[in-house]
Design a protein that fits this description.
With about 170 residues, this protein is mainly alpha-helical. Helices cover about 45% and strands about 10% of the residues. It has a three-stranded parallel β-sheet.
Length: about 170
């Protein structure tokens, strides 16, 4: 059946990237945050990341937000009790990205490369953080050029299963 197909549309999380969405009350977000130069207190960072995640998680299944999903920066602004400078806001965003991002096992890297020999590969990826870390991973693993389209929800404010996905450009 698959041999008659020319294009494969793939999701990423738990399809070929695993260990994603490491969020929870027992997670110490401040460890990564401090390692990248963040200066806010550990308690504040841990609380803020939890609030931001909860804020986005509440909106994610709501039909009203499918075509206007908040950016991570908007979520941070909505949840913070202090005015963050751009440096700290970037560090919070990078920390959130780190915990949303996962790993692509080597076997899956090889599989994607083999599939690209016979199929046009495209990705539709729902992530809340900016795509920077994912693009870096794809480039590092020599996967970025395998995909004809990589559509990241965080670029467009549109999340699956919005019918607007088909109208948006990759």
């Amino acid at each position: 059946m698959i041999s008659k197909k020319k294009i494969l549309l793939l999701d990423m999380n738990n399809t070929f990237m695993f260990g994603v969405d490491r969020f929870g009350v027992n997670e110490d977000y401040s460890t990564f945050y401090k390692s990248i130069g963040g200066k806010l207190s550990s308690g504040y960072v841990n609380g803020l990341i939890c609030q931001v995640y909860d804020y986005l998680e509440q909106k994610y299944p709501a039909e009203a937000y499918r075509d206007c999903f908040p950016t991570l920066d908007q979520a941070i602004d909505a949840c913070t009790t202090i005015r963050l400078d751009q440096f700290e806001k970037t560090k919070i965003s990078e920390t959130f990205s780190h915990h949303e991002h996962g790993e692509i096992p080597e076997d899956y890297v090889r599989c994607l490369k083999l599939l690209s020999n016979d199929f046009t590969l495209s990705l539709v990826i729902d992530i809340w953080a900016p795509k920077t870390m994912w693009v870096e991973t794809f480039r590092k693993l020599d996967l970025w050029n395998l995909f004809s389209v990589c559509w990241f929800s965080s670029d467009h404010g549109v999340v699956k299963p919005s019918p607007a996905l088909s109208a948006k450009e990759g």
